[in-house]
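name: query_chain
kind: protein
chains: 1
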Amino acid sequence: MSTDVRIERLLKATIDRVYDAWTRPELLTRWYCPNPALELKVEAEVRVGGEYVVTMGPYVVRGSYTEVDPPKLLAFTWQWDHEGGPSQVRVELTEVEGGTRMLLNHTALSSPEDAAGHLEGWELQLNRLAELVSALPSGRVSDRG
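structure:
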């Protein structure tokens, strides 16, 4: 069994909206936790070498951005405070007819069981992401220019 997670989704939103949802703390706090009952706090400095901290109730995950290429690519390290070693997440976005193709790869997880748990978590929160980006107002959300 693999220690990697790979998820591909077609999101019915522009690439800019999807990228904003991955990079703006005020949007991340609306979807970036598999359990919507947990209090969610996000701090993120989205730049290569910038750090993020996500607090999901009693759980904390943190890391640093290793690649940032708006609005197409975001890569970062992933480390839970309570368990496991560091792993890597890479999110690739591509404009396609009808929306944005998102490919998420979460690699170097500690075991097949860890990968299965992360797959379940990602699936739940990506469902929330899909709902959020399809409900955002039309047009560009960010001021990237």
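note: The chain has one domain: 5-135.
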